[in-house]
Amino acid sequence: MTTRVVVPREVVLTTRTNIAVRRTVPHRDLRRIGAWIFVDHFGPTTQTDGMVVAAHPHTGLQTVTWLFEGQVEHRDSIGSVQVIEPGQVNLMTAGKGISHSEISAHTEGNLHAVQLWLALPEADRDCTPFFEHRADLPVVTIDSATVTVFAGALLGVMSPATMFTDSFGAEVLLPAGEEVTIPVDPDHENGVLVVEGEATVNGTTTALTELAFVEPGSDSVTITAIGDVRLVLLGGTPFTERLVMWWNFVARSHNEIRSMRTDWESHGTRFPEFPDHIGGRIPAPELPNVTLQPRG
Ligand code: MN
Description:
It is a single chain. This protein is mostly beta strands. The chain has a single domain, classed as Jelly Rolls (Sandwich). 4% of the residues lie in helices and 50% in strands. The chain contains one helix and 24 strands. Strands 1, 13, 14, 17, 18, 19, 20, 21 and 22 form a nine-stranded antiparallel sheet that branches. A seven-stranded antiparallel sheet has the order 2-3-4-11-6-9-12, with no helix packed on it. The protein has a four-stranded antiparallel sheet with strand order 5-10-7-8, with no helix packed on it.
């Protein structure tokens, strides 16, 4: 079993406010963690400088929004309007196509969040889009750690959010100097993202904003807190389907991506319009001149 540290790259999202996020997946050092194909860490920043992401489309994936601090309103093209707060999860299953927008509330305090994408498997990727907000998440205490399971199953409990792959996501809080050993499926890939403090993961020092990737082959992940630490634990069965990921779309071929882009740019029926407090929409970038290739 090998554990290695992934140092995030900074990515500026093409939104109204040019939000900078720290991305550990996909990354030249880490393509996926199970079916988790996208891991963005945002903030902390003040709420008023926070998130203003105008309408944009998605296909072929599920988005998971999880806040540590702050408040964000989600709206989408199937009529959902949902404010999310820490301890709650927003899960949007894009399937054949949805568009959504996100705006942070203009309140006191900070915004601090992760946004995660899960690949949908071939059998489900063209499903009718749907949106879930779950505030009834299981919380488990193990050793000195407090673990909230927001997606999938871990430690004998299961999030009520709908999953299409054998994947899980959880937030872990561990006080300074404490150690926890969390049992995991040895067939899973696992990742531990440090969002507050610093930790060691299976003995490997993992600094704030870094992600420790644990290859399959171990039946547990051991975390030691260097100072109070807050972590996101992600894992799952290795996802072996070859994907074409471009902009906000997940597909299987260049032609599918081109068709999705055309549907967005032409205001096609795949992505209905919806009202929000932001207005407008994010235009798709130009497709590259080369044919996008599927990658495993
Ligand atoms: Mn989005």
